[in-house]
Design brief:
This protein is of the alpha+beta class. The chain is 17% helix and 55% strand. It is globular and about 30 Å long. A hairpin with an 8-residue loop joins β4 (49-55) and β5 (64-70). The strands form two sheets. The protein has a five-stranded mixed β-sheet, with no helix packed on it. A three-stranded antiparallel β-sheet has the order 1-3-6, with no helix packed on it. Mean pLDDT is 84; it is low at 2-21. The chain starts with a helix and ends with a strand. It has one helix at 3-21, and strands at residues 25-26, 31-32, 35-45, 49-55, 64-70, 73-86, 90-96, 99-108.
Length: 109
């Protein structure tokens, strides 16, 4: 195997890994209704993982307020019970194998 073949194979593997992460995303717009259950709608995940919701009212990731398991593929009607009414902005992180693969900031009204 030549060095060019090895380099090409490594580059192709890197592109494939990046493309897989692009398959994880949020369908919901940037606004959520306030309440103790946040409704995030459809979240598509490349693999099974977890959705974590953090306080984001200061513009920085704060304390964890809720989480929900995700399956590979389309997760419809995703709802996260935060235990307390949320009326502050939040950031949602999708983690697969401990790595953040998607994130989105939400304004909570």
């Amino acid at each position: 195997m030549s060095i060019k073949t090895i380099i090409f194979a490594a580059a192709a593997a890197g592109v494939t890994a990046t493309a897989g992460a692009a398959d994880t995303y949020f369908e919901q717009g940037r606004t959520l209704e306030s309440g103790d259950v946040l409704e995030l709608g459809l979240i598509t995940a490349d693999s099974a993982g977890v959705l974590e919701i953090y306080d984001f009212h200061t513009g920085e990731q704060g304390k964890l307020v809720g989480s929900e398991r995700l399956t590979a593929g389309a997760n419809t009607n995703v709802r996260v019970d935060t235990g307390l009414p949320q009326n502050r902005d939040v950031i949602a992180l999708v983690k697969i194998d401990g790595q953040i693969v998607a994130s989105k900031q939400f304004d909570v009204n």
